[in-house]
Every structure is written in structure tokens, then in C-alpha cells.
Amino acid sequence: MRIELCRNAARILCGSWITDWGDWDHGGWQVVRVIINRGKFMRVSVSGQPFNSDVSPCRPLTEQSNAASNSKIPRAVFIATLVIVLTIAHFSAVNGAHSLRAIHILLAGMYIVPILAAALWFGVWGGIITAVAISLAYFAHMRIAWPNQPAVNASQMGMIAIYWVFAASSAVLVWFQERERRRRRIAEERSERTAVIQAICGLLSALRVRDEYTQQHSEHVAALAVEIAKRCGLSDDRIQIVRLAALVHDIGKIGIRDDVLLKPEELSDEERISIERHPTLAAEILRPIHGAREIADIVLAHHECPDGSGYPHGWKQEQIPTEAHIIHAADVFCSLTESRPYKEALPPATVKQIMDRIAGTKLDAESVRLLEEITGLAREDTAQRAAA
User: Fold this and answer.
1) Which of 1, 184, 301, 308 has the most CB atoms in a 10 Å sphere around its CB?
2) Alpha-carbon distance 35 to 299, whole Å?
3) How far is CA 11 from CA 16, 277, 283, in A?
4) What is the dihedral sign for C-alpha 129, 134, 137, 138?
5) Residues 307 and 315 sit within 8 Å (Cβ to Cβ)
6) Is residue 134 within 8 Å of residue 99, measured between CB atoms?
7) Residues 149-183 pLDDT 10s
8) What angle do CA 239, 244, 247 make, to 5 degrees?
9) Nearest-5° Cα angle at 225, 223 to 227
10) Could you give the CA distance from residue 325 to residue 246 in angstroms, rounded to a whole number?
11) How many Cβ atoms sit within 10 Å of the Cβ of residue 214?
12) How many DSSP H helices and E strands does the chain contain?
């Protein structure tokens, strides 16, 4: 029953290319096994909403979301308000009757609450800074309430010491908690990345059976895209995402018929529409894989153009992920410089002319500039100008 389910799923995923058990053994089973074992195989619709990116293409990813900062503001206000209220209450009880002694002790003990809250919400330094503020407020209260009373002042200094002990203890506990949380997050990310890589290896095996050229082309694109990403200043994690996305950027072509995919003549309008579905098909294949949603978003956008003329959604420059810009430039360059049965590779001078002509409109200009530096097209152009 499981095998039959997997075979049916593979037919949905890969179209009609699995025709017998031999193909299944070498291609389809490996793809579906990875996805089924994750418990995630399904057909899903790809959102038509743009992948919003606040980061300019080919710039280091230094801008972070303001959501975390916005959530901290109310917490900081709460802590400050609580400290102020407790301090005002303390000063109000300075000249009170002896019966207010219990209230004084209660208010002094309640100073522990903002220290704990600050340590939990803002970490080690949050607890320390709050303890400093409370110690100063309590010391001022002590000097006003019990002037020239060294014995009483000494006992009240003990309360300030308690604040610092509590702040230090909270800071240590929070530090251990944060370290453990980071350790778990790193372990989860590694496990997730391993699962994604395994799934992508399975998809590449299927792509190799379906169309060996496309698989080799994807490897060339991945190698070039990684070099561009390094020149862009992307972090190691983002470079890894670029590599994985580039390796599977054409995985959707396993759902395109051979007579369309390999047609040497000009495509009809209907056939072109079919070809232009491959980013959407690729995203549908990748999204169900746990941990591959970001890769799917990048692959979905790798044929979008800065001027909005791309597909499938017609997104413009700032709506397109930086990684998709990089892969698009590498994809076009490799397509121009690789030979196919129905076309020869173009000479470098022609490739340079084409890349320069579409830079800024069809391709991200910065990605093209870096690509030409990496591949030597820029040096060749300089040499030709010098010779002229």
C-alpha cells in the first residue's frame, strides 16, 4: 500500500516520466522516500503574494526586523513604571507611623519583581541596570527616612545587597538559559539543514534521470551563484541558501513535457506558458519539505526581473529576494555559455554584450557587474578597449 501510494505521488510530482519499475527504482523512489519520510508530501498552492525583501540586492544583510525592538518598548515602560511607583510609595511612607513598617518591608521586597522581569526580558545587562537604578532609589530613600542612624542604615544596606545578589543570580540563570536555547537552536538548524540537503539530493537524482543537462546546468549555476554571493558580502548561512536554491532552481522542469522542454524550434504561446510554470512547480515541490520554505521562495522568484517583466508574478526589484537576483544572473550566463544539442555556446564578447544590455532591466545590475568580474568578462572588455 505504501509503495503504491509513493508511486502515485511520484506521478503527481514528476508528471508522466516514470513509466516502469526500472525508472522507479532509479529515480522516483528516492525522491518520494525523502519527502514521505518527513511526513510532508502534498500538493500545495504557491502564494501569489510577493516575497517582500527590505534588503537591497547584493548588499550585506545587516538590516534586521524592528518587531523585536517594538515588543521590548512596552516591557521597558512596564519596568520603569513599576520602579517609579514603588519609589514614590516608599518616599510617601517616610514620615508615616510605625504601623507602616510592614508596608515598608513589603515595598522593599517588591523591588525584586522589576529586577527579575528585566533579567528575563532583557538578559544579564537588563537585570544589572535595573538593580543599579533600584539601589540608588533605595539608598536615597534610606538617607531621607533614617538620617544619622548608622545602625538602621547598615541594616537597610543589607536590603540593597539582597537586590544585587538576586540580580546576579537571575543574570546567571538567564545566561545559562540563553546558552541552552542557542545550543538547541543550533542543533535544530543543523538537523533541519541536513534533512533539506538529503531531500535536495533526492530531487537532483530525479532530475538527473529526467534531464542530465538540466542537472549539470544547475550545478554550474550553483557554483557561479556562490561566488557572486561571496562578493555581495552575504553571510555563510545565506551563501549556503544560495547554493541549495541554485541546485534546485530548475527542479520544476521535471513536470514539463519532453517535447516542450527539449524543443529546438521557437515555442508557441501555449508552450511558453507551460515552460514559465516551472518556477511555480519547483516551489510546489520544495515547500512541503520541512525547512525548505525559504529555498522555495527564492526558486519561485528566480525568473523575476527588476523591471517587472519576469514571471510568474511580475515582481519588481525590491520585491525580489537578493538570492533570486544572484541565481537569475548566474542562470542566464550559464545558459548563454553552455552548448545544447540545438544550440552552440556563444563567444564571450557576445555574452558580454547581451549581459550588459539586459543589466538593470531583466537582471540585477550589481549581480551582473560582480558576475563579469568573476568570469573575466570585465577584464576581456577592458583589454578589447585598450587594443582598439
Assistant:
1) 301
2) 18
3) 6, 17, 17
4) negative
5) no
6) no
7) 777 677 778 788 888 888 888 878 888 888 888 88
8) 125
9) 75
10) 11
11) 21
12) 17, 0
pLDDT tens, residue by residue, 175-216 = 888 888 888 888 887 777 777 777 777 877 777 777 778 888
Question: Residue holding cell 516542450?
Answer: 260
- The torsion angles phi and psi of 256, rounded to 5 degrees, stand at -100, 135
CA dihedral (324, 330, 333, 338) positive or negative: negative
Q: What is the pLDDT of residues 69-123, one digit of tens each?
A: 567 788 888 888 888 888 888 777 665 545 566 777 788 888 888 888 888 888 7
Closest CA to 328 of 233, 246, 234, 215: 246
Q: Per the structure block, which three cell numbers stand in for 289?
A: 519539505
Three cell numbers written together for 263: 524543443
Question: Does residue 359 sit in helix, strand or coil?
Answer: strand
Region 236-263 average pLDDT:
88
Q: Which cell numbers in the block locate residue 341?
A: 544539442
Please count the CA atoms within 13 angstroms of the CA of 260 that sit on its side-chain side.
16
**How far apart, in whole angstroms, are the C-alpha atoms of residue 313 and residue 307?**
12
Q: What are phi and psi of 316, to 5 degrees?
A: -110, 180
How far is it, in rounded angstroms, from Cα 38 to Cα 24? 19
Q: What pTM did the predictor assign?
A: 0.58
d(CA 32, CA 322): 30
Task: Report how far apart, in Å, the C-alpha atoms of 198 and of each of 30, 205, 214, 244 are.
Answer: 10, 11, 19, 11
Whole-number Å distance between alpha carbons of 47 and 297: 10
Residues counted in the chain = 388
d(CA 168, CA 328): 52
